[in-house]
Design goal:
With about 700 residues, this protein is of the alpha+beta class. A hairpin with a 5-residue loop joins strand 22 and strand 23. Helix 9 packs parallel to helix 16 and helix 14 packs across helix 16. The protein has 17 helices and 24 strands. The site of dioxothiomolybdenum(VI) ion (MOS) has 11 residues, from loops. The site of dioxothiomolybdenum(VI) ion has 11 residues, from loops. This is Xanthine dehydrogenase YagR molybdenum-binding subunit.
């Protein structure tokens, strides 16, 4: 039997990504890179009206294109069973709920023929008036049901009365535009029916969920559907649940009885795979002259589509952050004729903390109190909204450590105090938080007679290093070198597991891997030196995770973000000169991949602050930015030296690894830190993102 050693240094070491060589040599396969014999290609056709009904379809020119196999519309597409996601009910009826909604699919022998056929399709619509503009004061906005404790409205005490009578007030409204995830790999699927079985390669953050939804839509038992997501080129929430492409690919494969690949054109993504809803956020802070918060009121209005309610829960983090005896946090959603919004990295927290942490900076300026000191004075050991103690909360340590590393001491708080020629220099700080989520998962670990251990779990590696950290968890628990652990992930035929999302993947999958490894180690110990049976020994674990509502503790990660900016007074251009984050995230399991996660989040936060934003054209009724030339994701030249650090945190109330999620917190406070630095540099308080030169001048 394999030798079991007492200790291993696998967990906590900076192991390199297991799939790194495959990715850089081009051998890692993505969803569209599977080449089943005889595959066809599909090209989708988006609606060209913002609201209405499809009244006539003329496909004779399309069918005349050489190589076109078929044209699917609501008249001939397979009927789908009902699901609770209306965005997946594609080609089921003639309604057009928003511009860009898919109304047809052309399937052909080649990609070129499919595209040519799609362009030759003549569609006629009965157009209806549409409305896509979000107004914070719209009477049609409603307070959604608070199904999970993060949406709806929460009230403590008498916030309005206290606000009115408090000695110091801030009342400010912040605006964040629609934002798009734009992963490098667009949404793509290759689907095939094999003797009544549906086999799909999908670019997804969670193949178990895609399997379940496809089984539901196509009315199949779950064991007749296999979904793999072997490698995924980013998602950031846009691939968190199935999107229409995978349904269309499965439909086309069924109708043509051929394997079909569908890769969504980049220009279609803004309308069909979700976006961060724009928010209008009014923040009212009331404090005493020492900066002690008396009342916090955070009111958020976001939009949703006509077919699906999605709430950008921007006030949720305000329920976590600062002690205040009185508070009201309110979400309102306004249904419009817009594409359906969805998750984008730190949904809720990212725009919400931009508003709260900007308002805290405004309060610090109004009081003449250092912004770090103001946050320390309002720190709390219990979660304000639930009164539960935090399992660990080291926000103060993050702020202090960040201040030390950044060189905050001695900062002249006056705006416009530092210049370099025509450039104004400023520094800013903001806090960050993100919940430590854990979901149920299953995993198995097998010990073979040759000393190799195989972990099987339907985790997804969306570029984070999931394979690597799961191998470290197994090796550490088993007490074996990490090189002896094989990892099988990315297929729904593996033990069921939750998606890579909500910064919960490692905690959820890792808990099950830890549990299965623990059981396996115990069974191997029982062998007492006897050799393993030929088939090896396997242990399977189901872990529940811990739902937040069931916990005696409030479990959240915290962080502090620091930024230094230079603002060119001639051009209005803002350059971020330094970005530094310090995080309290439980135990860091792999410093190398963790650092990548943090600086990736901070980079996305820099984009949110300075360059990213989508525009809903009121007349056109859709997003104007359709490619990466118009939607400005930051490039290498935009990114300064970004530093990510963390403090040791020993929290026994999380999971067996003692870790909190790290995928999202990096974005959370970054935009506010940059905006606060811009105020420090210029004296101008800009409350609408992104901070482009036209707004600065
Ligand atoms: Mo993330 S927005 O939970 O994929």
């Amino acid at each position: 039997m394999p030798d079991i050693v007492a200790t291993s240094s696998a967990l906590g070491t900076p192991a390199e990504r297991r799939e790194g060589p495959d990715k850089v040599t081009g051998t890692a396969r993505y969803a569209a890179e599977h080449h089943p014999e005889g595959r066809a290609y599909a090209w989708p056709v988006p609606a060209t009206v913002a609201r209405g009904t499809l009244t006539d379809i003329d496909d004779k020119h399309t069918r005349a294109v050489p190589g076109v196999v078929t044209v699917l519309t609501h008249l001939n597409a397979p009927r789908l069973a009902e699901s609770d996601d209306a965005t997946l009910a594609v080609l089921q009826n003639s309604r057009v709920p928003h511009r860009g909604w898919y109304v047809a699919l052309v399937v052909a022998d080649t990609l070129e023929a499919a595209r040519e056929g799609a362009e030759a399709l003549r569609l006629t619509y009965a157009e209806e008036p549409h409305e896509v503009t979000l107004r914070g004061d719209s009477p049609d906005a409603y307070v959604p049901e608070d199904s999970d404790g993060t949406s709806g409205e929460h009230v403590r005490g008498e916030p309005d009365t206290v606000h009115a009578s408090a000695p110091v007030h801030i009342d400010a409204t912040y605006r964040v535009p629609p934002l798009h995830n734009h992963p490098m790999e667009p949404h793509a699927a290759t689907a095939e029916w094999q003797d009544g079985r549906l086999v799909v390669h999908d670019s997804s953050q969670g193949a178990t969920k895609v399997r379940d939804v496809l089984a539901e839509l196509f009315d199949l038992p779950g064991d007749r559907v296999t979904v793999t997501s072997e490698h995924v080129g980013g998602g950031f929430g846009a691939k968190g649940t199935p999107r229409p492409h995978v349904v269309l690919a499965a439909m086309a494969a069924r109708v043509t009885a051929r394997p079909v690949t569908l890769v969504l054109p980049r220009g279609d993504l803004p309308a069909v795979v979700g976006h961060r809803s724009p928010t209008v956020q009014r923040l009212r802070l009331a404090a005493d002259p020492d900066g002690i918060l008396l009342s916090v009121i955070h009111e958020v209005t976001s939009h949703t589509s006509r077919i699906k309610e999605f709430v950008e829960t921007a006030a949720a983090a305000t329920r976590v952050m600062y002690a205040s005896p009185h508070s009201r946090t309110t979400h309102r959603v306004l249904p419009l004729d817009v594409p359906s919004p969805s998750w984008m990295r730190a949904p809720g927290e990212a725009p919400g903390m931009y508003a709260l942490e900007s308002a805290m900076d405004e309060l610090a300026v109004a009081l003449g109190i250092d912004p770090i000191e103001l946050r320390l004075r309002n720190d709390t050991g219990t979660e304000p909204d639930s009164s539960r103690p935090f399992s660990s909360r080291n926000l103060a340590a993050c702020l202090r450590e960040g201040a030390r590393r950044f060189g905050w001491a001695g900062r002249d708080p006056r705006p416009r105090a530092r210049t370099e020629g025509p450039t104004l220099i400023g520094t800013g700080v903001a806090a960050a938080t993100y919940p430590a989520n854990v979901s149920p998962s299953r995993a198995s670990v097998h010990a073979a007679a040759d000393g190799i251990f195989t972990v099987r779990v339907n985790a997804t590696d969306i570029g984070t290093g999931a394979r690597t950290v799961l191998a470290q968890i197994a090796a550490d628990t088993l007490g074996v070198p990490v090189e002896r652990v094989r990892i099988d992930i990315g297929s729904s035929d593996l033990p069921d597991a939750p998606l890579a999302g909500g910064s919960s993947g490692t905690a959820s999958w890792g808990w099950a891997v830890h549990e299965a490894s623990t059981q396996l180690a115990a069974r191997l110990a029982e062998l007492e030196g006897d050799s393993l049976p030929a088939e090896g020994v396997e242990a399977v674990a189901d872990t529940e995770g811990t739902a937040d509502a069931d916990s005696a503790y409030a479990r959240h990660a915290f962080g502090a973000h620091f930024a230094e900016v230079g603002v060119d007074t001639v051009t209005g251009e803002i350059r971020v000169r330094r970005l530094l984050g310090v995080y309290a995230v439980g135990r860091v399991l792999n410093p190398r991949t963790a650092r990548s996660q943090f600086i990736g989040g901070m980079t996305m936060g820099l984009g949110m602050a300075l360059t990213e934003g989508s525009t809903l054209d009121p007349a056109f009724g859709d997003f104007v930015e359709r490619d990466l030339a118009a939607y400005h994701v930051p490039v290498q030249a935009d990114i300064p030296a970004v530093e990510a650090h963390w403090i040791d945190e020993d929290d026994p109330h999380l999971n067996p690894m003692g870790s909190k999620g790290i995928g999202e917190i990096g974005i959370v406070g970054t935009a506010a830190a940059i905006g606060n630095a811009v105020h420090h540099a210029t004296g101008a308080r800009l409350r609408e993102l992104p901070l482009t030169p036209d707004r600065v001048l």
